[in-house]
Automatic annotation (TrEMBL):
Organism, as annotated: Sphingosinicella soli
Superkingdom in the source lineage: Bacteria
Biological classification of the source: Bacteria, Pseudomonadati, Pseudomonadota, Alphaproteobacteria, Sphingomonadales
GO molecular function: 2 iron, 2 sulfur cluster binding; oxidoreductase activity
PANTHER family on file: PROTEIN YIIM (PTHR30212)
Ranges where the 2Fe-2S ferredoxin-type domain occurs: 277-361
Pfam families documented for this protein: FAD_binding_6, Fer2, NAD_binding_1
All copies of domain FAD-binding FR-type, residue ranges: 21-125
Annotated SUPFAM superfamilies: 2Fe-2S ferredoxin-like, Ferredoxin reductase-like, C-terminal NADP-linked domain, Riboflavin synthase domain-like
UniProt name for this protein: Ferredoxin-NADP reductase
Length: 361
């Protein structure tokens, strides 16, 4: 029990360690080709400053060039280390995808990219005692690799882990060896080749999901074994939106409590409640009027006023829109997923609670 608490506290402390503000340069090197059009890259920081350890499942926001207006993309880290000296990204080169093609090109020549620190709320809980279930499809495998490794690094007796993955075939199955290595992996190939082995043919559906997950399992939370119904699992889902929706619906129909289902694309839909009717917003001399009826975030208001603040996730996770509140007060909703120093705000999830003056970074 104590070991679980310590693991949770260590992960919380990790969020504050080695973080930097603004963009930091990293050298990119190709590690290997993982599957057709998919490569892993090592991103090593220039300079000796410590590197922020990520929580398993987090992403980094990457600026693909020196210029302020260079393309910015976010990619999930595909490896986990409690004390990293580099980050690993595994990125599929998308047809017509300028960001992914540019990263592949920069990696091939050993070039430089600029990063914000790791962020994101889709992270593995490492102090739970319920079974961990990872469900991924396609390139959604990347956070699962980090989670698998972080789970195995737990210092207590970790609960069982099940990994269910959907790919088209062995040719496109990224990290196939890791899935084979995982004790309880279920791999589905929708269009298997004759040479593919160790998989179930077809697509994962609600019925098969129930067969795999509904049976009771044993876990040892207090040093002794107990049996829990299958619905009591911590579930992490990552894949294309229709896949995530199918899995979420199937799990909910099974009786898995919604709070135990986490997915990378799931963002609460509720519109934040305004706390005032209107406010004057001064963006360093550019004046905008904020109103309760329109209820824009300060990022949206700045863009409407013709400004172009930096942004990445637009959901309070990456820190790319961090700015200084010179005077007045704001409300954040959702709450920022990253620590903020006094007087700093995230434009994308902040709304004024009074007239405000803001200095854009
Ligand atoms: S754009 Fe990512 S935190 Fe605001």
């Amino acid at each position: 029990m104590l070991a679980k608490r310590i693991a949770g506290l260590e992960d919380a402390a990790r969020l504050k360690t080695g973080r930097w503000s603004g963009w930091r340069p990293f050298r990119v090197a190709v590690l290997r080709e993982e599957a057709r059009d998919v490569s892993s890259f090592a991103l090593t920081p220039l300079g000796d400053a410590p590197l922020a350890p990520p929580l398993a499942g987090q992403f980094v926001t990457v600026r693909l060039g020196d210029a302020d207006d260079a393309p910015v993309r976010s990619w999930t880290l595909s490896d986990h280390d409690d004390a990293p000296d580099h980050y690993r990204l595994t990125v599929k080169r998308l047809a017509g995808g300028t960001g992914s093609a540019r990263l592949h090109e920069i990696g091939a020549r050993g070039g430089t990219v600029w990063l914000r620190p790791p962020s994101g709320r889709f992270t593995l809980k490492r102090d739970g005692f319920m079974r961990v279930v990872l469900i991924s499809a396609g390139i959604g495998v990347t956070p699962m690799l980090a989670m698998l490794k972080a789970h195995r690094a737990r210092r207590d007796s970790p609960p069982p882990l099940v990994w269910i993955h959907q790919a088209r075939s062995g040719e496109t199955h990224v990290f196939a060896a890791a899935a084979k290595d995982a004790a309880l992996a279920h791999v589905f190939y929708s269009a298997p080749r004759e040479s593919d082995a160790g998989h179930e043919a077809g697509r994962l559906g609600a019925e098969r999901l129930r067969e795999i997950l509904a049976p009771a399992y044993t876990t040892s939370p207090f040093g002794r074994e107990i049996e829990l119904p299958g619905i009591y699992s911590d579930v992490y889902v990552c894949g294309p939106a229709p896949f995530e929706a199918m899995v979420r619906d199937a799990l909910t129909a099974m009786g898995v409590p919604p709070g135990q289902i986490r997915s990378e694309s799931f963002v609460p839909a509720a519109q934040p409640e305004p706390v005032i009717a209107q406010a004057r917003v001064d963006f360093g001399g550019v004046i905008a009027q904020w109103t309760e009826s329109a209820n824009p975030s300060l990022l949206e208001l700045a863009e409407t006023a013709g400004l172009a603040p930096g942004f990445g996730c637009r959901s309070g996770s990456c820190g790319a829109c961090e700015s200084t509140l010179v005077s007045g007060s704001v409300e954040h909703s959702p709450s920022p997923a990253i620590p903020l120093a006094a007087g700093r705000i995230l434009l994308c999830c902040a709304r004024p609670a009074s007239d405000v003056v803001i200095a854009l970074d």
